[in-house]
Structures are given as structure tokens and as C-alpha cells.
Amino acid sequence: MAIGSAPEPVPVDALESLMARYQQSDHHAATALIERVSPLLHRYFLFQISNRRYAEDLLQETWMRIHKARHTYRTGEPVLPWIFAIARHTGLDNYRKTRRLESRERQVEVLPEHPAARFAPAEPVTPDMNAILQALPDTQREVVVMLKVLGMTIDEVARATSSSAGSVKQKAHRAYEKLREVLVGAKRK
Amino acid sequence: MTPEQMDKIFAEAANRPVPPTEPPDLVQRVQAAVLKDLRPVRPLPAPWVLTLVFGAVAFLFAGGSALILGLNGLHALGQDQRAAIFTAVALGAWLAALAAVREMRPAGGRRLSSIAFATAAVAFPILFFLLFHGYTSQNLIREGIPCLVAGLCVSIPAAFVTAWVLRAGCVLSWRAAGVAAGTLCGLAGLGMLELHCPNLKAIHVLLWHVTVVLVSAALGFGAGWFADLRGASRPEDLGRFALGD
Prior knowledge:
By secondary structure, chain A is mainly α. Chain A is 66% helix and 0% strand. The longest helix of chain A is centred in the middle third of the chain and has 26 residues, at 79-104. In chain B, helix 5 (79-102) packs antiparallel against helix 8 and helix 7 (140-166) packs across helix 8 (174-196).
């Protein structure tokens, strides 16, 4: 599809089929895949970092990596774990990069007028859930977001995080216990 | 609070609409950038093919270099020792190759690199302890250093070849891939030493032959750590889809 031409109706296909056709350079499949997966990725990053601008940067970067790595997707395998494995590593790499940059930063007495948007103060987008999920360690929060917010299965989360289904269940169980305490505490207040 | 109430809270969070991205044409920009560079790609070969490739690399380096240096070790070993050692090396190499293959694609399966390394690091000392005797040596260092150097001279070039194969995939953690590849290539070095070195003293084999695996895995981890560091700080990671700000 040429950019700017009238969009043709895209049949509702399984993501796996779209991904396989994307590998074969099908423009409609690539367009549909990006349209359908981007909101999930955006939501995932929002729950991880609570900063919209940063989440958008990560979304773009994740698609760049997906595009470069598209030959490593195996036809017929679930596509969401493959995509979210790339997404979580994009997030991790950027976290490390930010930490490194921050460690090199020097304290100044007056803030610059236009600080880089990347380091803009956190802007909570989903305040309730975000606030509650912040009580969890990163690995547990990630599992809960994938399972409960994105609707992935335990097997899919295990694949995306390169761990076993048992480990995912254990993390989810611990996270629910912790969340239950937080939610009960919040209700009492 | 009941699990059902918690599920309801999660469901509400999941169904809450995500605010439109800002700038609003973000998805369209991503689509345009992807479509501009859209070409058909050949999918990566099946995992079993890649496992065979890694296995073949290790086998060729170990066997080839032992043939060049001489098969003195093979002749010195008894039938049982040969069977036990080379079966263990082959199994360890298969596990390490599988671990390396899993690192080549995102969501490639449960991470095995640390398991492969731990298995090799524990199994071989136990095996050699059971198979060989002799815990004293007058020339421990003088006899051992050439073995260590020869083993690394096999494992390091093999590591370059495995790294070249790994680059055909999409490695997300080069540290894990480095440990897996280092263990595999270290086992190639160990295999070569068992074929070539006629010194069957337990202390010599335990100290110098097994060390090749440990040093190779450590070098693999170090190289992977450096690659991860470089990958994470590469400026183009941020820029290609940048929004012109």
C-alpha cells in the first residue's frame, strides 16, 4: 500500500497470520499488525514506567527492533510472547542506559529551562492501578500486567520472560498476595 | 478482598481506554517507517538445524585440532573411559548448543545457559574424579599450562564462529548467549584435550582440562556483557523513528 493511498479493508486475522505475512513484506499485514499491537505495547510501557512520553519512545524503539528481528519469528508460534520479549528487553536496555546517564549527571543548582522530555517528571496515566502496582517489584508487576491487563496466558508470559510456567505462577501468586494487602489497606483508609 | 473483586479491578484497568498517543500520528509514523523498509525476509532455520550447526562447529574444532596435534590421549584412555568422557562431552555440548540456540530468538524458550554451564562445571569434575587417579604431580604447572593454552587456542576461534552464527538471530541477552557459547566452545577445547593429552593424572585433568571450560564460559560472559553494554548505548537505537524533535 502506498503511503497516502486509500486504505483497503483489512480482514480480522490472527496476529500470527499477520506476522507471517509481514515477514513476506505484505504491506496490509504490517499496517494491521502495528495498529493492533501498538495499543498493547503502549499500555504495557505505561504500566511499567508511568511516563507517556517515555512510553512512546519505547514503543517506537520496540517497533524498530521488531522490524529488524522479524526473520526470527517462527511461523505458527504465538506472536505476542515474541513481541513482548523484545519489548521488555527494549525497556530494560533503556532503563540501564538512563541509569548510566543519571550516574554521569552532575547536580546543578538551577535547572535548565528546557529539560529533555525523556526526563520529564512522571505523568501518571492510569493513577489507581499504577499507584497500586508500584507496590510490586518490577518482575512481579510485569507478570501481573501481562496476565491481567494484556490478557496473555501463563504460557505466553513464560515464553516472553524466558522463564518457566511455574515461575510465572509463583510470581503472580506473590504479586496477588501483596496486592490484596495493598487493596485491603487502601479500603480501610 | 476476594480474588473476584481483584479480577474486577484488573478488568477495569485493562478496559480503560489508553489516551491517544502524543503526537497523535505516532502509530502512522511507525507504520510509514516500517513500510518504507519492508522487504521479504528468510525466517531463521529451525532450532534443531541451528543446534546441529553449533554442534558441528564444536566437533570440527575439537576433532580437527586433535587430528593435527595427535590422538595420544585417545590411545591412552581405556574403553570405558572413552565411552564415559566423550558421551559426557557430547551431552554437555548438546545442552550448551541448545542454550545458545534459545538465545537467538526472542521468546525462544526457557533460558538454559546457566544450567548448561553449571552442569558442565559440576559434572566434569565429578566424572574425572571417578575415572582417574593420581593427585600428586611434580610438574603440575609446567605440564598444565600448555594444556590450558592449547584448549583455549581451540575454544577461542570456535567462539568467533559461534558468535558469527549467533549474529544471524536476534540475541536479546548477549551475556546469556556468551555463557552458552563459551561453555560450548570450552567443551570443544576439553574434547580436544581428552583426544590429545596422554596425561591421565586426576589432578592434571581436573585442574587444567576442566579450567578450559570455566575460562571459556567466563570469557563468553565478559564478551557478552560488553556487547550488551554497547548495544544499550548505541545511539541509533533511539533515533530512527525519532519524531523530528
